[in-house]
Write a structure and sequence with these properties.
- By secondary structure, this protein is of the alpha+beta class.
- Helix content is 38%, strand content 16%.
């Protein structure tokens, strides 16, 4: 990774602690208003994909770092902390709130909060944080009040109907087979318009190979999702079937989440449901609906999806967004889903992306874990591996499968081939790291 121009870092988001940001709420409101027919958009009002790419590419490192470091309701928190810790009431009353908080301009809602707390403070009705929160209609620290699920609650008077349908892509379910032609048309349109692929590069065979075939099978994992009580689940008021799609399709393996607008597939999210996480593989959409910001919307829907699935299997809480590429500004949007963590490429520990971004702004490749002599995991770095004698090897000899350690495997080789095989196994182990190499089996 330290040699490539664009190091790839595995990124994951904690769905149970996820906090919406303003831009993400705006996307959810945009979709909701469109479904309610409150504002009709057209493709002409939307920036072209080239314009959007230009805007994203020109974002500075500082801007992106600030976006990653954003916290929910930070101004409201500062105002509340001010009234808890500030003792000079005369200053609070005589000076403007912007002057005390050192903010150029406050929003109207923050001015209203400031004035309300000022009045309560004057009447000696607030002495601590609990007093303040009990006096507010809306608790700025309550993440449930601004949860994704609240924005996804369908209106009773919608004009456009958007629903998601979960279908197993491998082995292909009946529903998937019946809709693959429609999916493929959307995929071809997306690839040719957004990514400038040639139509010949988007054949049905290529589509199946890229986004349908999978090594994961329904019985790949054993867990609660394999034995759901569907009748009980359908009556569970705390479970949002409208977010999941079709409860009959829930399980482990590879799936397509189809976004269906008025009976027509307009987007598809390709996901893997594993025993500890849900991984986002790919997303494509009909470019005619680019104005709806479907990329952000799908990620938020998938986070909400993870939160619902975690009610069925409590081991599942993480949402994997693939790879984070800090050197590619168009890919940094993945860091805007808070809280997110990057995997250290050397010791495989997870670290908050806010801390990692500062390191990556200085160097495109960075180790995130601190180097400490007392840290036992540090001694197992991938570059410390020099002996492969105990690496497990699987091979076939005369139709019989054998599992042996590498030093025993060498007895089956001609002497002239041993250095070549040793070099090959050593390179694998340097790539995996010592702790992983002790557990894997290399097959020849």
């Amino acid at each position: 990774m330290n040699l490539t121009c664009c190091p790839l870092y595995t990124i994951k988001c904690d769905s149970n602690k996820f906090q919406l940001r303003r831009s993400q709420k705006n996307t959810l409101k945009l979709i909701k208003n469109y479904l309610d027919n409150k504002n009709q958009h057209s493709n002409k009002k939307c920036n072209s994909s080239r314009d959007r790419e230009s805007i994203i590419s020109n974002l500075s490192n500082d801007y992106i770092l600030n976006r990653i470091n954003q916290r929910k309701n930070t101004v409201a928190e500062r105002i509340i902390d001010l009234f808890i810790n500030f003792n000079d009431f005369n200053d609070l009353e005589s000076k403007k709130p912007e002057e005390i908080l050192k903010i150029k301009k406050l929003k109207a809602k923050h001015v209203r909060l400031y004035k309300k707390l000022l009045l309560l403070k004057k009447n000696d009705k607030i002495k601590n944080k609990e007093d303040i929160l009990s006096s507010l209609k809306r608790n700025p620290f309550d993440s449930n009040q601004d949860s994704i699920e609240n924005y996804l609650t369908p209106s009773k008077s919608f004009q456009n109907k958007l629903e998601t349908r979960l279908v197993r892509s491998f082995p292909p379910s009946k529903e998937f087979v019946e809709s693959i032609t429609e999916e493929h048309k959307v995929y071809t349109k997306y690839q040719t318009i957004i990514h400038k692929d040639k139509p010949s590069e988007c054949s049905l065979a290529q589509f199946k190979r890229f986004l349908c075939d999978s090594p994961l099978l329904p019985n790949s994992y054993k867990g609660p999702l394999n034995s759901l009580d569907l009748k009980r689940l359908s009556k569970d008021k705390n479970f949002r079937e409208d977010i999941v799609g079709d409860i009959n399709s829930i399980g482990y393996g590879s799936f397509h989440q189809q976004y269906i607008l008025n009976g027509k597939i307009i987007a598809v999210g390709v996901i893997d449901i594993l025993n500890r996480c849900i991984s986002s593989v790919y997303f494509f959409y009909d470019p005619d609906y680019q104005f709806l910001n479907l990329g952000t919307y799908s990620a938020l829907r998938e986070i909400a999806f993870v939160r619902q699935i975690s009610k069925l299997d409590t081991n599942i809480q993480w949402y994997y967004l693939g790879f984070y590429v800090h050197t590619c500004k168009k890919m940094r949007y993945k860091g805007f889903y808070y809280p997110s963590y990057l995997l250290c490429p050397e010791v495989y520990t997870w670290h908050p992306i806010e801390e990692c971004s500062r390191l990556l702004n200085a160097n495109k490749y960075s180790r995130f874990a601190p180097i400490e002599k007392t840290d036992q995991t540090i001694t197992e770095d991938q570059d410390q591996i020099d002996n492969v004698d105990n690496v497990k090897i699987k091979f076939d000899i005369h139709g019989e499968l054998k599992f042996v350690k590498f030093r025993e495997f060498c007895s089956f080789l001609n002497d002239e081939y041993i250095p070549e095989f040793k070099h090959l196994v050593l390179n694998y182990c340097k790539l995996f790291g010592k702790s992983v190499s002790d557990r894997i089996v290399i097959s020849f």
